[in-house]
Please model this.
Amino acid sequence: MKFLQKKFDDLKPLFEKGGKYEKFYPLYEGHRTIFFAPDIITGKKGAQIKDATDLKRLMMTVIIAMIPCLIFGMWNVGHQHFIATGIEASILDKFWIGILKVVPIIAVSYGVGLMTEFTFCVIYQKPVEEGYLVTGMLIPLIMPATIPLWQVALATVFAVIIGKEVFGGTGMNILNVALTARVFLYFAYPSQISGDVWTYFGDKTPVDGFSGATILAYGAEAAGNGTNMMQLASNHWYSGMFDFWNMFIGIIPGSIGETSTLMCLIGAIILIATGVGSWKIILSVVLGTLAMGGLFNLTGGNSFMEMPAHYHLVIGGLAFGAVFMATDPVSASHTDLGKWIYGFLIGVITVLIRVINPAYPEGIMLAILFMNVFAPLIDFYVVEANKKRRLKRATV
Model:
């Protein structure tokens, strides 16, 4: 490390004021602080408030929590590929297919996203923030494996600029940045990101094209034409694919990291145990989902509405959204009561969108973005109500 420290020290004069690369000082400082402490640190004298959790550690904790979803997603991409081609394969063969498809998406997400962030840092002469470390991993995990890389790059640029930088950068964004990337693709290029999902074939293509519906697509079809949803699903690639426990484990078609509720639960345990994620938001999303799903069960009308409420928890990206998106500490509610209201309404709206509007079979994305907008308003009224209660007690 001394060698690396010496290299950084030798380069420092070039990036300091008056140096040849003065404008690029944010890039130099951003890379140096990956390995070493920043120049400005807490003083040894005086009263100081210290916390073991800084922004870097918080971001790394979220990334660690997402690793189970990433690893399982890589395997599942290969697994779906070999199911579709009808070829027997080992775990390593399936995982290798997943690596071939997922790693390039991750590389594009981080490469394009960081380059966009660095550009803004140089233009506005502000330090490089660590916020994109999490966003760069979230974006690939909510993409289908067959998404064109140029679309990933385009969505990433849109998300960083429109979702974050126009509001002032990390910590100032109103909307979840990764979901902003997904919603951009959802409306700009819907055929690649919604409805039926394409399965990767590589050099083992037995037919010209192949696609299969997700369970949400079957639900939307059933709601639209009155057919039986579970009967449609039972005729999928193989019998039992859309059984509850199969969907809970995540061995189904879908976006890379969001098919497995089990892996999301492991991530939730890590976030809650480390104090990074809010268990109140996660639990309230589940309660809101079950409440709305149960209400539809009582009213009936079509087979999608009559689907058991707990099925909503294991289909689509609800579990991933509840654990990693709804709990975003920047765009979510911050008051205790506000977190319960915020999460509950996300669950309710998700099921509403899924069942009522067949044009948007996946509701969690729009539900979280919608509630992101209302999160400050929820906190405002919660604080106002608290102030009124305290004033009422004080004037007795």
Remarks:
- Residues 205-211 have pLDDT under 50 and may be disordered.
- Residues 290 and 309 are 5 Å apart (CA to CA).
- DSSP finds 15 helices and two strands in the chain.
